[in-house]
Design brief:
Distance between the termini: 156 Å
Radius of gyration: 42 Å
Number of domains: 5
CATH architecture of the largest domain: Sandwich
CATH class of the largest domain: Mainly Beta
Oligomer: single chain
Largest sheet: 5 strands, mixed
Number of helices: 1
Strand content: 35-45%
Helix content: under 10%
Length: about 475
């Protein structure tokens, strides 16, 4: 007979079996656990800083596993995550890893991003979302493309508003080809506009329509990553109680001004649009707040303030001088002929410098010069007191020769110390070459102007001989040139 013996403690036996089942190893228990972000509430990246670290723990991952930080979209969804830096886990015996990553520069900033860690194993689940130091799994992530102050209202700190009208304040973009010169050149950037230090709801573009007086400025909107240093100048908008505006014009060099150099800059009272005139005639293309003026005259500007208009005026005077030259820009001179070139000017204490072929003519310091040789002349008139300024006039003297004659002698002591050829060879389609008796090429030009030699000639014991070649549409001519003194 077989006797059944029951365990003394049936309850203990069943409990032991359950524990053995529960603690049985699970070979598919790969787990990633994110660690709280140390000292980090938000990810505010930019060109000056873009380096962040995320630490996580993991178990049961094989060698060769890679891990990657995944960013959510701006609403916190991982339906289409943004992958950043990958990390190859070569030491799978370690219990944690740290990934250094950067915020993508193409990201559209928002205050509700999340990120997590995902492995290269398809069977492993991504980690939970990282928490910032406040314990939040949703926080701001921005890449700040522009990190500097900027200007509005053409850098002017005041603007006029017509009673019952409006005007537009705009962010400056003076050099659009230089991207870093203005936040306007970055299309993703939005703005916050303020009136009397209070944010204006619903205004995020580069322009603001103003219809009430106050102090206005703009700030780049990087959400919770915004920085008060990335803001504009403050503009005080005032209004005219009579319903009309007033316009004035200022001259950067004063009035009268010195007309030397690039002239003076005329600037009108700030408004919406501008129309400039000089002596009653509209200046073509002059529709900006500031224009450059190089001449005296009565300048006016019609300024549209939005709802009303006003006209400003300035009678601009120049304390520079006038001058004129009494010869033509180009004329011909026969051999032995002379022409007196004379300057007339109202300059105070003028000085004169005369040049031939860009070489200063020694002793030519009066208002006239007797032209005896062909070449390109220049006279410079300078006013050395009062308004320091100068003017220059240039003229060209050519020779009169029989077109059939090519001279073979150059007399350096004569009235025409150059090898002058007929004008029919002085053009862009004719090539002129001069070669020394040693075979050295001393001249090789097109459009020869009859101004050789321009440097000194070494005579030694005999008059030097040169050879010329003229290649034109009508053929080639060759010959010799003897230089005498």
């Amino acid at each position: 007979m077989i006797q059944k013996i029951a365990p003394k403690n049936t309850t203990f036996f069943l409990l032991l079996c359950c524990l053995l089942f529960i603690t049985k190893p699970n070979v598919n228990a790969q787990t990633i656990v994110p660690q709280p972000l140390d000292g980090l509430e938000k990810l505010c990246a930019g060109n000056s800083f873009n380096e962040f670290y995320a630490t996580f723990s993991y178990i049961d991952f094989p060698a060769g596993t890679t891990f990657v930080i995944e960013l959510s979209d701006s609403q916190g969804s991982f339906a289409s995550p943004i992958a950043t830096t990958k990390l190859l886990a070569t030491d799978v015996s370690s219990t944690s890893q740290t990934i250094k990553f950067a915020v993508p520069i193409t990201i559209v900033g928002a205050d509700t991003y999340s990120f997590r860690v995902k492995s290269s194993l398809a069977s492993a689940q991504p980690s939970a979302k990282f928490k910032n130091t406040l314990g939040n799994t949703s926080f701001p992530i921005y890449f700040k493309e522009y990190e500097a102050s900027f200007f509005i209202n053409n850098k002017n700190d005041v603007a006029m508003l017509c009673a019952g009208g409006s005007l537009t304040l705009s962010i400056n973009n003076d050099t659009p080809t230089v991207q870093a010169s203005s936040p306007v050149n970055y299309t993703k950037i939005k703005y916050k506009w303020y009136k009397d230090d209070v944010a204006i709801a619903g205004q995020s573009s580069k322009d603001l329509v103003v219809n009430a007086p106050g102090k206005y400025y703009a700030e780049i909107d990087y959400g919770l990553c915004s920085d008060v240093n990335y803001s504009s100048n403050r503009v005080t908008v005032t209004t005219s109680g009579s319903g009309g505006g007033s316009a004035t014009i200022s001259s950067s060099l004063g009035n009268p001004f010195c007309a030397g150099g690039s002239g003076t800059v005329l600037t009108a009272t700030s408004g919406n649009s501008y129309l400039w005139k000089k002596d009653g005639t509209v200046i073509s293309g002059a529709t900006t707040r500031s224009i450059n003026a190089t001449e005296s005259g009565v300048y006016t500007v019609d300024v549209d303030f939005g709802g009303c208009k006003a006209t400003g005026s300035i009678d601009l005077k120049s304390n520079s001088f006038n001058a004129s030259l009494d010869v033509a820009d180009e004329f011909k001179l026969k051999d032995g002929e002379t022409v007196n070139a004379s300057v007339t000017t109202d300059a105070i204490g003028p000085t004169y410098e005369w040049y031939l072929n860009n070489n200063l003519i020694s002793g030519a310091t009066t208002n006239s010069y007797l032209v005896t040789a062909i070449g390109t002349y220049k006279v410079k008139i300078s006013q050395a007191s009062g308004c320091l300024a100068s003017k220059e006039f240039t003229f060209k003297v050519k020779g009169k020769l029989d077109a059939s004659v090519i001279p073979n002698i150059v007399n350096l002591a004569g009235s025409n110390p150059y090898w002058n050829i007929p004008n029919e060879y002085k053009n862009a389609s004719t090539k002129v070459m001069i070669i020394s008796s040693n075979g050295d090429m001393v001249l090789d030009v097109v459009d020869y102007q009859g101004d050789w030699p321009q440097t000194s000639i070494d005579f030694k014991n005999v008059n030097p001989v040169y050879y010329y070649v003229i290649q034109s549409d009508t053929g080639e001519k060759k010959g010799s040139i003897t230089v005498i003194k």
